[in-house]
What does this fold into?
Amino acid sequence: TGYSMKIQSMTGFGKAQDNTDDYSCRIEIKSVNNRFLDVQFKGPKEMAALEQNLRSILHKYISRGSVTCFIQYLNFQKGTTALKVNQRMVSSYKRVIRDLQKQFSAESKIDISELLKMPDLISNIPESENLKTLGNRIAPVFENACKTLVKMRASEGSKLVRDIKSRMNTL
It folds into this structure.
């Protein structure tokens, strides 16, 4: 009767963005129901070294759910506008495509525009931009995205409580 339920939904979405003259960072976080905390990061491979720190930030806000974090980061600093091609990845994709062509006796040319759509082939994060700088730029944006995720999960939880109470009253 006087008991107040504090329920947080497992489903939610949070996003945050930071745009400066030097860079742009956009982060989106989606969560769905899961008994444990399962986190996946989607974004440039250069961000892999930051994942552990981002996981600990996320863990401050949630302890359960299947969570997917999308990270977009673009660097606009002078002298860094040249795109970097991951030659090893290009060679790997070419090899796989040629193997498939042989396996299925399919003759076709490798279309460069299609190849460029493959993940991790091109990066605009310069080698000169160190991990600490990247972390200092991305972490606060990630934290803001976590806060908006928690806010949405709480809002969804409130809706669940209202629905449960409504159903209990009809019984």
User: Anything to note?
Assistant: The two ends are 14 Å apart (CA to CA). DSSP finds four helices and six strands in the chain.
